[in-house]
Design goal:
Radius of gyration: 18 Å
Number of strands: 2
Strand content: 5-15%
Helix content: 25-40%
Number of helices: 2
Shape: flat
Low-confidence stretches: none
Structural class: alpha+beta
Largest sheet: 2 strands, antiparallel
């Protein structure tokens, strides 16, 4: 994540923009029948790793996204009804 320097944008908004981009990558990968996985393991939080990826200063390495063929297809999900999960609030 390269920090936005041209506008006064809170860091959390840059982080959230990356998360949205990763979600779009995941949806695209899934549409092509592949699997994807975003992880923050390994060197993600080592400042020394930032320069390898062209990041510096306030920039952040937010993880790695792995893409590959799915070896074992997941089973069907069991979902409970929406009304068991959501509480609507009238304002």
């Amino acid at each position: 994540m390269r920090r936005t320097t041209t506008k006064n944008i809170p860091e959390i908004e840059d982080i959230e923009a990356v998360a949205c981009a990763v979600q779009n990558i995941y949806l695209t990968v899934s549409a092509y029948g592949l699997g994807g996985y975003w992880t923050t393991g390994g060197v993600t939080y080592y400042d020394e790793a930032k320069s390898f990826f062209g990041l510096n200063g306030p920039d952040k390495l937010l993880g790695f996204f792995y893409i590959g063929h799915v070896g074992i297809q997941p089973g069907a999900a069991k979902r409970s009804p929406l009304h068991e999960k959501v509480n609507w609030v009238d304002v």
